[in-house]
Amino acid sequence: MVEILEQIWGIKALYVDENHISQFSSDEAAIILSITPRNYDRLIKLQSLKDIFSKANLNLNEYSVQLSQIGIINAIKSIKIDNQKVLNGLNELAKNEIIDFNGYNLISDFINNLELNPTIQNSAETQPFHKNLHTLNEIHQILSEFKLNEVSKRLSNAYESANNSKFKIAVTGVINAGKSSTLNALMNKKILGASNIPETANLSILTYSQDEYAKVCFWSPNELESMGLEPKKLEDKIVPIDELKSYTTAANEISKMVKEVILGIKLDILKDGIDIVDTPGLDDAVVLREILTANYMSQSDFTLHLMNASQSATKKDMAFIVNTLKNGKSGGLIIGLTHVDKLNQNDIKEVLNYTKNSIKTELAECGFDESLADDTKFFTISAIKNIGIDELKNYLYESFFGPNSKKATLIIDNYKKELIHITKLIDDDLKAQKTALTSDASTAKELANSLQNEIDEINSLTNSINSELENLLKRLNYDNENSNATLKAISAKIKDRVISDVKYASNKKIKLDTARLGVIIESGFNDSFIDFFRDFKQQISKDIDSASKILELKLGTKNANLNLPDIRSYIDEHLPKINYEILNQDVIKAIKSDKNIENVGANLTIIFDNFIADLNLPNKLSTLATTCTKEYISSIKSELDSIKEHLKTKEEQINLLAKSTFDNIKDKEQLIADIDSKIAQCQEIKNRIELC
């Protein structure tokens, strides 16, 4: 590895760590790799370059540059930095004469000849999230050993919230897309399609469990009736994995009644907190299963859509991909072209380019911006030959747990915030105890009286705040008067677009593209619902924010001790889920059942009006507004009670210590020394938390 440094730097090449791996973006990597003795003096004066190194906590000097160059090459080898994007960046720098022709050829040839080795990355454990989580869990254990009852519940909740967070990926594709074989390869164990777990049309959720099990969940009587089956009340049951085939094999009548299967399996990839949802094929004939799939997809962080490389970019695939991108999964959509072992390298490249171009073409034809597909990640995969599996796994680990993961960062930040708050509470208590031990009786009594005054103040504030919160609930007035009218106006526009497509297909005597119609309908309604829900959230949040400001003014510094729910996130999580499968089927049925375009238009108006009426959004949102406001009120009251209890305990402790008698002065000095040691420990804990 150091040979490349010697070729770039000559006698100026320095000894650096050959195994160092850097974390830079591909653009930053290209800039750093372009630095040579010829342009070094000129480039180090650039503020932009200084900022890049400062962000990486490095001084800008020859050693840091060469260390970073080696680190970037190792990152490219381990698929942590995209080699093609780096090469593109170097090409641009060469065009702008930042790097000379010889230097460009030397670096680009070296990168092109690198043997990529994704196994360097190993596992999720190498990512910042798990390292920080491990450290914070150690701190959690240390804080638990202080045995302060008043914070034990908060400690437990903080630990549970951080460690039980799930990262979900939904796996989709038409039948024979290679879902089971790809997932088996990804998990490094034949789970799906094995003799004891036959392939089924049921949705399967794979989650980690030390003791392996299978849970069979059944459709409700109403759901069974809607599928044309005899309505039966069946209780979900946990069964041994080797008995699962009795419920899922198509030959058994009960398999029709199975809604989903949850598999608890002891696997490394699941142990890292990843849940995998193996969905039924996109071409599933059962509408309710498609609805179930759509619901799980909306809850997933990523969607992995698999297509057989020999049959990629079908109409069903394209409609699904466009709809997914339009609904905000551009950064969370991964496309895998499977069975590439059956193709040569040229064919693979051709299929990959064809798929990318087809997606952009489909977006454009549906009236959407082609750039929606820019963040989609593509992999070429063969489960049989293990091609692309390690790269896919590493990409998932990096995306879920890496430094740029918003979800991982939020989990760690919330954990840190709560542990710092708990540490401060413990620290304050310890300092109060020391004051009680080291002061005269009157000072200790003064401190206890001060705490009693705080308790009285909290009681007074509680009554005042309770009154304010009750007023908040009374004045809550989600305006839904014009909601249905707005939605009907939108549905009229969508109907016109559908009719326009039907007329076009009829005039041109071509087959109607039903998949495209589905995208038109869903994207049209989704756009309106996004605006609809945003306005709703702003309206409710405005009232709650107003109450929060009043609360903050009344509580003063005590406001920092409150641990309140994130109302905006609560609303996002509980917003009504919209499914379009039945609507799309009704629309297609209406179009095919009548050749008269005016009749079709009238029927579609009725279908869309019924769809909006059945959604019952205004009432659902009114209920949600009340529910989330009550949740907020309940949390405030609970937090105020918690603060009051803590102050009471603190007062009792100080009174007890102030009245304590010691057999000799050494016992008292030892107790004070122990408290001093714990106070110092609290400061060390704060420092450790801040470093995570």
UniProtKB/TrEMBL annotation:
Parts forming coiled coils: 441-486, 633-688
Entries under InterPro entries matching the protein: Dynamin_N (IPR045063), Mitofusin_fam (IPR027094), P-loop_NTPase (IPR027417)
Organism: Campylobacter vicugnae
Main location: membrane
Pfam families from the UniProt entry: Dynamin_N
Gene3D superfamilies: P-loop containing nucleotide triphosphate hydrolases
Entries under PANTHER family matching the protein: SARCALUMENIN (PTHR10465:SF0), TRANSMEMBRANE GTPASE FZO1 (PTHR10465)
Residues in Dynamin N-terminal domain copies: 169-328
Recorded superkingdom: Bacteria
Location(s) in or outside the cell: Membrane
Name of the protein described by the UniProt record: Dynamin family protein
Claim: Chloroplast is one of the keywords in the record: no
Protein keywords: Coiled coil, GTP-binding, Hydrolase, Membrane, Nucleotide-binding
